[in-house]
Design a protein that fits this description.
two-stranded antiparallel ribbon; TIM Barrel; 11 helices; alpha/beta; 338 residues; globular
């Protein structure tokens, strides 16, 4: 099949980010090292530095406090913002963000202050990825209330109003149903003006996408299929129209699982290694968005084009079996071909 040319509507190029290791789901570590937190952090640092060196656009960490697969519940997982704080000091150009911050875990005024400080530490490279939260077991384990889905989205809406005000106003006051701030001051302000990119993640169409239309610079969905992304973007356009906002002001992004190799045998070995005991390889592939970005560079490019055709411009790659070699191959065979 003839390869299509990759195009991007804005700024002339696609954006490629990746999730960095943070202990659990960390990548290709030897068995004797995979639950050693010191070795895991060293691996996280090496991946962040390599991604920065290779010219990836962004790196992200998941905002989870415990793993969400039953068999992994006791494994290490580094706290998102602590890890990103360290990452900001060892990288130079790459953007840094979250896939995605759970709004419920931090007061919005505090979160505004955290991200603003990190934007200064990183010299203007911080993003805010944020969502309404979903992992009930994690909420309850850490003592957070777990209200309804709709209520969590309404909380997210209020939080983003507060955060944007604190980033742009000398002082901020807000009286909502869920949050209140009185003459709150956020200094230093972010370096990026008017403020860092706000990426809202989630899949709810009736309520969550309205928050995206109101607040976001980018919309993100985790492991979304091309058809799912197309549907969400169509609905988002309608929500933007209803509030008088140009939908072109909002980028669309997707987190995609990826195994890249030039040998099908290598792919099968990696799949066998990471397939969970209670799943077949086929079931695992179904979870990995049907394997659309698993295989040779040519196959991955075809998969990416299925998203690009209807407006996805930012890809966050979740590498399976992540190591420096897979980053190098992705850089040379995909990013360099754009």
């Amino acid at each position: 099949m003839k390869r299509k040319i990759l195009l991007k509507e804005k700024n002339g190029k696609l954006q490629f980010g990746l999730t960095i290791p943070q202990g659990w789901r960390g990548g290709d570590l030897d068995l004797e090292q995979e639950n050693n937190p010191v070795k895991q952090f060293e691996f996280s640092k090496s991946i962040a530095i390599t991604a920065d060196k290779f010219g990836f656009d962004s790196i992200y960490a998941y905002d989870h406090l415990i793993p969400f697969f039953k068999d992994d519940i006791e494994k290490n997982i580094f706290e998102c913002f602590t890890l990103l704080s360290a990452t900001a000091t060892i990288t130079k150009k790459i953007k840094i963000g979250q896939i995605v911050t759970c709004n419920s875990y931090r007061n919005p005024a505090l979160l505004a202050k955290m991200v603003s400080t990190l934007d200064v530490i990183s010299n203007g490279r911080m993003e805010l990825g944020i969502g309404a939260g979903w992992y009930e077991k994690e909420y309850l384990a850490y003592g957070y209330d777990f209200p309804s889905h709709v209520e969590r989205i309404k909380q997210l809406d209020e939080s983003l109003s507060i955060i944007k005000e604190m980033w742009t106003n000398k002082t901020s006051s807000f009286e909502g149903r869920y949050y209140r701030v009185i003459d709150a001051i956020c200094n230093p302000k972010p370096i990026q003006k008017p403020y860092p990119t706000i990426m809202v993640g989630g899949s709810g169409e009736e309520y969550l996408l309205k928050v995206v239309a109101k607040h976001a610079n980018r919309y993100n969905i985790f492991f979304g299929t091309p058809n799912e992304m197309k549907s969400k973007i169509t609905i988002l356009k309608d929500h933007c129209k209803n509030i008088g906002r140009d939908h072109k002001e909002i980028e669309s992004s997707v987190v995609l699982p990826c195994i890249i190799t030039e040998s099908e045998d290598d792919i099968n070995q990696i799949l066998a290694k990471y397939t969970r005991k209670d799943k077949t390889v086929k079931q695992y592939l179904d979870y990995l968005v049907g394997g659309i970005t698993i295989g040779s560079p040519e196959k991955i490019i075809r998969g990416l084009n299925d998203y690009i055709e209807f407006g996805v411009s930012h890809f966050v790659i979740h590498f399976i079996g992540l190591n420096n070699s897979s980053l190098r191959l992705f850089k040379s065979k995909i990013i360099n071909k754009i």
